[in-house]
Every structure is written in C-alpha cells, then in structure tokens.
Design goal:
By secondary structure, the chain is of the alpha+beta class. The chain has a 7-stranded antiparallel beta sheet. A hairpin with a 4-residue loop joins strand 5 and strand 6. The chain has one domain: 2-Layer Sandwich (Alpha-D-Glucose-1,6-Bisphosphate, Chain A, domain 4), CATH 3.30.530.20.
Length: about 150
C-alpha cells in the first residue's frame, strides 16, 4: 500500500532536519509509539500500539535509517514490526523529503510503501488505508507542535 502525505512544519529546514533524524525524539510523534531505544548505529527498537477497526495490535520492531542526504533534504527509513499475538507483521519503506518554504517554515513530504502480512492483511485495505492516513496526519501535527518547542 502506497501513501503520500504533505504537511508544513513551522520551523527552519535545519531544525526540521535535525528533529527528523533524532529518532528517539521524533518517533513518539507517531500515535502509539513508545519505548524507542537505540540498537546500534542508525537502528532503533520500538513498540507501537494501534487499533485498526475492532482489533488492537501491539507491534514490536525496528526502525532503520537507510539513507540520509541533508543537501537534498531527503531521508529513507525501513521499518519492520510484528504482532505475535495476532500473527501478523508489517514492512515499510518510508521516504521523508523536506523543502524550505521560508526561513521559519518547511514543507515535508512523506511517502510510504507498506506491506501487511498475515492476519493484519485480512483486516481489509480500506480500513488499513484510513488508519495509516490518519496516523501520518497525526504524526505531521505532532511534529509541527514539537518543532515549535
């Protein structure tokens, strides 16, 4: 499933870039993410609790920074997580690209390509798509708030 979201971050491109690459600080901007800890260089373990329709999921997995290019304002991440209780997993490639709009405003483009495996994939694509879109929108809103502090 491919998704694309855009948002404005009320901060300079440099501040936004630094925030995006501070995974333990920025990951909790995603609703349900907790317990983010370093697991080596550019690799982090995390837990995410989410409700999709009637099902509550508890994902455990890793976030890896695959590539970062400050000149282009682009970073790529790979996420793998599983819910052992339900018997399903996700694998996602995420690209974040930032562009300066003004000295204190940055546009962020988030493009994700996610594969849902096992029981999670049986929940139905429309439900999953709605939840994924609302999660990315909440992330953008929370990131904007954090950038202002």
């Amino acid at each position: 499933m491919k998704l694309e979201n855009r948002c404005l971050v009320p901060a300079s491109v440099d501040k936004t870039w630094a925030l995006l690459l501070d995974i333990p600080q920025v990951a909790p901007c995603i609703p349900g993410v907790q317990d983010v800890i370093s697991d080596g260089e550019n690799r982090f373990k995390a837990v995410m609790q989410v409700r999709i329709g009637p099902v509550r999921l508890n994902f455990s997995g890793t976030i890896s920074v695959v590539e970062q290019d400050k000149e282009k304002g682009e970073a790529r991440f790979h996420i793998e997580a599983a819910d052992r209780r339900v018997g399903g997993s996700i694998r996602a490639d995420l690209t974040m690209q930032i562009t300066s709009i003004s000295p204190e405003e940055t546009e962020m483009l988030i493009v994700s390509d996610t594969v849902f495996m096992g029981k999670i994939g049986e929940l139905g694509q429309p439900i999953i798509r709605r939840k994924a879109n609302s999660t990315l929108q909440d992330f953008a809103r929370n990131l904007a708030k954090q950038a202002q502090s």
